Amino acid sequence: MIIRRWSAAALSALFAVLTTGALTTSAVADQSEPEAEEGPPPRVELVLDVSGSMRERDMSGGESRIAAAQQAFNEVIDAVPAEVHLGIRTLGAGNPGDDREAGCRDSEQLYPVGPVDRTEARTAVATLRPTTGFTPIGLALRGANEDLGDEPGTRRIVLITDGEDSCGEPDPCVVARELAASGTNLVVDTLGLTLDDAVREQLSCIAEATGGTYTAVQDTDRLAERLNQLVGRAELPVENPTAVTGAERCQDAPRLGVGVYADREEFGQHRFYQVPLAAGQELRASVSVAADRPVDPDYGVLLRALDEDGQELVRGTGAGSGRTDVISTGLRYPLPEVDGEDGDDQERRVVCLEVGSSFSAPDAVERTPGLPVELTVDVVSAADEPSDVAAFGLARGWVPLVLLTVVGLLVGLVWGLWVRMGTAVGRA
Known about the structure:
Layout: H1 2-31, E1 43-49, H2 65-79, E2 85-91, H3 100-103, E3 107-114, H4 118-126, H5 137-148, E4 155-161, H6 172-181, E5 186-192, H7 197-210, E6 214-216, H8 220-232, E7 242-243, E8 259-265, E9 270-278, E10 281-290, E11 298-306, E12 312-321, E13 326-335, E14 348-357, E15 371-380, H9 398-427
Parallel strand pairs: 1-2, 1-4, 4-5, 5-6, 7-8
Antiparallel strand pairs: 2-3, 8-15, 9-14, 10-13, 10-15, 11-12, 11-14
Helix pairs in contact: 1-9, 2-4, 2-8, 5-6, 6-7
Transmembrane segments: 397-419
Keywords: Membrane, Signal, Transmembrane, Transmembrane helix
InterPro entries: CLCR, VWF_A, vWFA_dom_sf
């Protein structure tokens, strides 16, 4: 019995030593990573429709739409994290008459984007009273975009309305596409307080153009919950693509390094970009094209790597039919080293990336700005390959294989010794 206890203790100790070694390796790897630098604070602006229809009492419990919105706003104000800068803008709040020209300019900032003084913000929300005004959603989106500023970092607009735009100019969908094309990484989420099909279609278009979400809500508690979710998303770190403009031919193309890039591509257009590559390196590139407006059901995307003479090196293609938000493809192109040549003599070349898509759309669909394009460029070499210990406790590469093999052999030896000694003691 004593021998068995000793053997079990030895087995436990063996696992402890091996596990400690693995954890120490992981800890050292973690400590070598540089700490992330703090960026600009995330910014969110709530845009609320305060037109006359917000008096309707069709929310849960017989509450008016404006009362439900005010309650939800107050809950968001109480819960907003200190690092999130929050602002509030209204539309249709200050024009009680039927002057269309004045009503379609009726959008004001109720509370400036910045650190939240909860008392002041709640007081401002309490003053809101529905008018008989118009609903200039496109104008309000432009105003909210200006309120958020153009500094890098998270920028979100949450639009809450019970109706579609009643002014027509500027068209909210066109405005959303313009804002998405501006390179300021703006996301617009929309909340509809009715189940009207026209409202759903317009709010979906706005959200889709900017990578946001649309939600129909007629329950007061659900409205507050959804608002808090959307404001909370502003805390999530984002990788902001660098705005770039591709050329119409390779010779004029911008030169790109490793990174994520955002561009726009008209229907039927091809865009070109240059990537420098040295022998021993491998180019890895991917592209995504988003359908931010109604398109015909069959489409494709093409990504080609070309040499400086226009000769195709490799290509990636994707195709689809029906309805999708994004279609993507990628490619890999290695430039091998030449044996016997030192680093200075090794080949260097410029690889040209060509991006094209075969989207088409009905004549009534706006052609400008072009479809959103996101291009990811990575260049790796043997020295850049990921380490053998992966994040999140998972391992990859040959080190884990050797470690597991050694552990298996040692456990087998200990187990065999334990069984033999136990058998010998039993016979004695």
